[in-house]
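Hey all, quick one. A colleague (J.T.) asked me to put the flavin-adenine dinucleotide job into the tracker so the inputs and the structure tokens live in one place instead of scattered across chat threads. No bug as far as I know, just bookkeeping. Sequence used:
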Amino acid sequence: MCKGESNRVHNSGRKTAKMAGPPEATDRHPVVIIGGGPVGLSASILLSLRGIPHALFERHRGTSIHPKACGINQRTTEIFRAMGGGLAAVRAAAAPDDVKGRTAWWTALGPGGREIFPRDAWGGGAYADEYAAHGPTRYEVMPQNRLEPLLVRRARELNPAALRFGVEVTDLVVDEADGGGVRVKVRSSRGEESEVLARFVIAADGGRSVTDKLGVPWIGERDVMDMVSVHFRSPLRSRHPDPRNFIIWFTHPDQGGSVRTGYLYQIGPWPFDSPEARDSEEWVFSCAPTASDPSKFHRLVLPLGRCRRRRGSRQPWWAVIGQRRARHRVFQAVHHPGPSHSTLVDVPRQGRPLRSAI
Ligand SMILES: Cc1cc2nc3c(=O)[nH]c(=O)nc-3n(C[C@H](O)[C@H](O)[C@H](O)COP(=O)(O)OP(=O)(O)OC[C@H]3O[C@@H](n4cnc5c(N)ncnc54)[C@H](O)[C@@H]3O)c2cc1C
């Protein structure tokens, strides 16, 4: 198993976005967005479409290097549809139908592996009509490291100057005496510090930095378990016993059962016949490691074939949600349920109060 490291920890390998200069001390914006993940980038696009000037600060110099979220639910693709060019680009590069709509449980892959149960899922197969009846768009599967560059491209088409990568928000002061604005302190990757003024702030920081500063209490359980992910390249598809499955869940009582045994999912690139996809299939294996069995990856996945360029990450799973979504003029994407759920649905919920406020 690859050695663990905390999530989103290093910049090497990131698709570096074009850097804007450090913000000027006199910068004033109707809206400041903290965070350039899917929520922050979507917020930027939606604000631009409404003609609302804003600045987005992302502390990393580029987009996510980790696949992270892969399932984009139907409500979120409806929002992407409202972004104009956004949905078409996502649809074109998302998982094909024969991959995205099916999942199965196996004891292991390779010799001795046995299928326990397959099923349709995420709007595929038996669920296609039901999903179609509930919305004009479809559930899509696309990892975050490919989604974010598409959102950046769309955000830049609409407002080339809004995205400031490599700039971290270090503090927020809600200044009610000064017409109710927010003073946002920022530090560039070169260490230059300055302050910008915002009428409203969208904290799309994944609940990682400003939530506590705002005094938003979390409810729920933290540190439910540690999960380790291994992101690797390997031509597994031709040897996979059923590559129609987006995810294979390993379940074996001797290895902890369920997520403790682990799961394997394919992350493209798609379409399979694109030049980008040739000889570069990417996969992710995740599991909860146990001291007694640190070698699940080797036993469950490697029997199918060798892999290269592995990158590991370790994340604690939380099941917490912030108790408030807005405080003064700061709108917070506070949902932090751990790796298996998404805060993407927070985009419309955040947009409503903000629209009426502006
Ligand atoms: C291994 C893994 C698997 C996952 N699988 C799924 C899945 O299948 N489906 C799913 O829906 N979700 C999944 N998730 C969860 C998903 O990644 C999150 O829900 C999603 O990233 C949340 O989007 P976001 O934009 O709110 O936050 P993030 O993507 O966390 O983006 C927040 C951004 O804010 C930046 N930031 C934070 N603080 C500051 C600051 N002070 N100044 C400037 N920038 C700042 C961060 O650098 C980051 O880029 C998974 C997560 C992991 C780790």
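Adding what we noticed when we looked at it: The pocket of flavin-adenine dinucleotide is lined by residues 7-8, 34-40, 57-60, 68-71, 144, 168-169, 204-206, 208-210, 229, 315, 333, 339-343 (CB under 6 Å). The longest helix spans residues 144-158.
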